[in-house]
Amino acid sequence: MASVYAIQQPQGYKNHLQNIAIVGVGGRVGKFITEELVKAGKHTVTAITRSDSTVSAPAGVQVKKVDYADQSSLVSALQGQDALVITMGTMAPPEQQTKLIEAAATASVSWVLPNEYGYDIADPGLHKDIAPIGDAHAAYRKQIEDLGKSSWIAAICGFWFEFSLGGGPERYGFDFKNRKVTLFDDGNTPIDTSTWPQTGRGIASLLGLKILPDDASDKSPCLSNYKNKFVYFSSFCVSQRQMLESVLRVTGTKESDWTITSEPSIERYQKGMEMMQAKNFLGYVQMMYTRVFYQDGSGNFTKSRGLQNEALGLPKEDLDEWTKKAMEYEE
User: Fold this and answer.
1) Is 126 in contact with 120 (CB distance < 8 Å)?
2) pLDDT of 176-190, one tens digit each?
3) Which residue, 20, 68, 253, 329, has most beta carbons within 10 Å?
4) Are strands 180-184 and 174-175 parallel, antiparallel or unpaired?
5) What is the tally of helices (H) and strands (E) in the chain?
6) 290 φ/ψ angles, rounded to the nearest 5 degrees
7) Rounded average pLDDT over 145-171
8) HSE of 64 in the Cβ direction (CA atoms, 13 Å)?
9) Residue 119 CA to chain centroid, in angstroms?
10) Rounded to 5 degrees, what angle do the CA atoms 85, 78, 33 make?
11) Contact status, residue 123 vs residue 305, Cβ threshold 8 Å
12) Of 118, 96, 78, 271, which Cα lies nearest the Cα of 182?
């Protein structure tokens, strides 16, 4: 396919996104994406919220109320938007994202970032073993392509570090209150993981890129490089052992002060599946997190895919600083 350059576009063409709509402005990651978009000062940012929502948008953010039962209200809210960023909690009705994607196509929104922000769902093994999530995400991306009006970009940033380290033993295996940690296998399998602020910076930086290269000599990062593709970035690529070393530094404790056990990851994954079948939601969490730590390297996309941190201008973060924040998060 022939390359397309900004210099080839009609007079008046603007080679950047002006108007960005975001769903979930008050959510865990939506909050940070919104803050970073506003801080960048490059866009007009609009929060798309339910008509009965009491969430307050940050200063400088426009608000448009919608009714998910009225598709025309979604289309109206998205008119004139260049990009739609979707962030939703795990319990949000799945049809909401379907309706947003349909409305974005009707309103001719050029770019859609679907609700991804997690493990590498493009990895065949992860897709298969965490099938309900992988299948759903694939369906949303296919919907965008089939409608033919928008392009998608899926952000792969790993699980959120402070939430996952401080979120209980079902996630990264740490129980800070009782000073216990369960290592999956030998605890030396590295995975990529991101803080909420790094995720916000990553998305804001991505959407702040020029859309097209200026001409054939322009090799700088562009939004079009990621059209209908995955973009990979993270804060840290670390193993449980490295997390534990960070915890020991932050707390001033020794390994002997902790109860450290190990469990084969495949067995732990299977136990999570059994918990799921017994309608225990924590089984879903345990299954999903454990699978990323398999020794097949599927959780390490620094190695398997390469990161876009440099292209996005993302800073290096301090592991111990964020370990401390993760421990505060649990409290």
Assistant:
1) yes
2) 999 999 999 999 999
3) 20
4) antiparallel
5) 12, 13
6) -60, -40
7) 97
8) 20
9) 8
10) 25
11) no
12) 271
